[in-house]
Amino acid sequence: LEYPASCCGHFRPVTLRDWKSAKVSAPVSAGTACRKRRTRSTTHVDTMAKMTKESEELEQKKEALRRNAMERLSYAAKEGFCKQLLALLREFPDEEDRRALVDQEICDYEVEDNEHQVLTPLILATLNGHAEIVHILLTLGQPDLEKEGCVKLHGELTQGVTALWVAAGLGRLNIVKQLIQHGAQVNHATRKGSTPLRAACFDGRLDLIQYLVAHQANVCTANMYNNTCLMIAAYKNYPDVLQYLLEQGARVNEQAQCGASALYYAAECGYVEVCERLLDHGALLLRNTYGLTPALAAAERTRESTVLAFLARPGLLTREERIDVLELLGASYANDKNNYNVAKAFEYLMMGMEERYKDPENIIRKPTLPPVPAYELWVECQTVQDLFAIRYNHNSLHMESLTIRERILGRQCPEVVHSIIYRGAVCADHGRFDRCESLWLHAIRLRQQNGLSVQRDLLRFVQLFSQEFSINVQMHFEGVLAVLGACVDELRYNQQKLTNPGPRDDPDAIGEDYEMNVVTVLYLVTIVTKLLRLERLRPTDQLILQAYQMIYQLNQLEVRLRDDQTLLHLAVNGIAPVDEFYTEDVCRFPCVDTVKLLLKCGAHVDVVDCDRNTPLHTLVGTVEPARLINSNAVEEVKEIVDVLVRAGVHLDAVNTDGLKASQDSHYAPMGEFLRGYEIRAINLRCLSARAIAQHRIPFRNQIPLQLVSFVERHCMPKG
Fold first, then answer.
1. Is residue 2 very low, low, confident or very high in pLDDT (cuts 50, 70, 90)?
2. Domain membership of residue 98 as a residue range
3. Which residues contact 166 (CB under 8 A, 6 or more apart)?
4. Helices (DSSP H) in 357-453: which residue ranges?
5. pLDDT above 60 for 622
6. Which candidate among 51, 192, 292, 514 keeps its CA 20 to 30 Å from the CA of 221?
7. E strands, 458-601, in order
8. What is the number of other CB atoms lying within 10 angstroms of the CB of residue 147?
9. Which of 176, 456, 195, 412 is nearest to 288 (CA)?
10. Using 50, 70 and 90 to split pLDDT, how confident is the model at 10?
């Protein structure tokens, strides 16, 4: 017999001594074997658990070390500590580990407006101008030069930036050279298509631009809006940069998505030298999407020197174009907020008129357009004598100019309304509120026809009406209704845009406009209630019916704020936002008349907000106890409660906290007052719903669906 003598596999013969010395083992029972197996199994599980724990601890230590290393690295990159950075990088002898470290992203939450930057150590060092740190990172860390970050530069948070883009945007030529020498891509664009060359053009760094172009930067690359580097140079008034780009082959007649060219940007800003250089290189007077040429844009902005430069160029403008430019320049001077000059207005209007009659054989007469009521049905002057007749009549010159601007620019041009609003404001300052209303309403209609926001225009009207009411000026009910109708139309348009936004729409901006318009329409409804109570106004039954119809349409839109507050909630809200310019003297909440009018025109009395607060909850929960010390305020609140109860509000409806309105009141006497109503106005349906809530009786799938929401309204458990 043989048996293994060792783990090496050697064998030796078995002797008699072996047999004698061998111990006979007792038979092993099944239970003992099972216990041994369990012991071995438990030991194995414990070993695995221990190994898992050790692995987790090891990973935690690694993560802690990594975070510590990143903190040290970001601090050194931000503050420019070269020795600390060198010491840190020596702790990572492996190139892959070192590269992984320097390519980590760093989030910087110190940027304003809840925005945060996403940086790499290389971008962070570039942002702070530490060329030595950049050199160390490039030579020892070998970072990914094309790794993108998110940086706030020139007041804008830009996504997809590289270290080279940041260096170019900040004018750090020494860092730009280092990055390019180490292989950074010179045409790497951001998410919106901005290249390092474009970033350099924004600050006008000619030396940096020349270096980038010498290293194959493309001077014709445009961003996502098709804006080119040449347009930036023209807009920022950098003649030398513009000249260099033109010499390098930049396309002079490239147009942005809005149709504006480099010449257009320079002309509307009034940069004569830039315009001259562009024209010398073959720039054309191309029209933008609204049909405006650079010459018309300069005239609309009252850039007199630029307009004269265009007019002085032989053959640049046709006779008709010269007339339009001269007349638009004069008309703009008559109604420009910053450059108002009635003398120059008449001068250029006369020059335009003389140009029309310059050739007796070919007189260019003005087109006849339907008169605009907002411009006092003004008809443009047709002859030199007609224009001379109104030379010293400033109001006539103003109306002539507004009519000319609308004819030349077109009703679709957004620039038309600026002069209209300015002229209306001047009329209001002189007490001509009727003229102001007419002009501003015309401006609103023009903007709405072109799909532009009128949120500020509507709020401006509320301030105007509040001022008129406060100083006891004779108001026109039909004018208020016209603005109310425009506000209802705007809310409907806002809802459509929020539901189906276009490719260029900003849902957040639309949402903000929508909420402001909700508050504005509440002001207008309140002003309507004030006017209905004025004996001296006495609107006709037809106008009153028209007001009711508009408010009914408004209620059908079911407009709400983000917290689901409806107009009825806002009308009873003691802390509802109120504009401070005259409006707070007229529109105070809670307002019983506004509540009555909304309910009369179809508002739902039991509507709830996001916290399931009914208007009654909002009323008693927001009215300030200090205000209720005044007996008149108490009576007004009680009257609103009575109106809501008569309209059918459920007194025992609970909010998400399980509180009824009587329990949610901050003013104890008001709670007692409501409980008195609860006792008198309770009905069998409410008692049944309350019993279901009290005894927690399952009711879903047990009662008709139309009753489920009713029961839930009464039995929402607290918490």
1. very low
2. 60-218
3. 123, 126, 127, 149, 151, 153, 199
4. 384-389, 394-409, 416-429, 433-449
5. yes
6. 292
7. none
8. 16
9. 412
10. very low
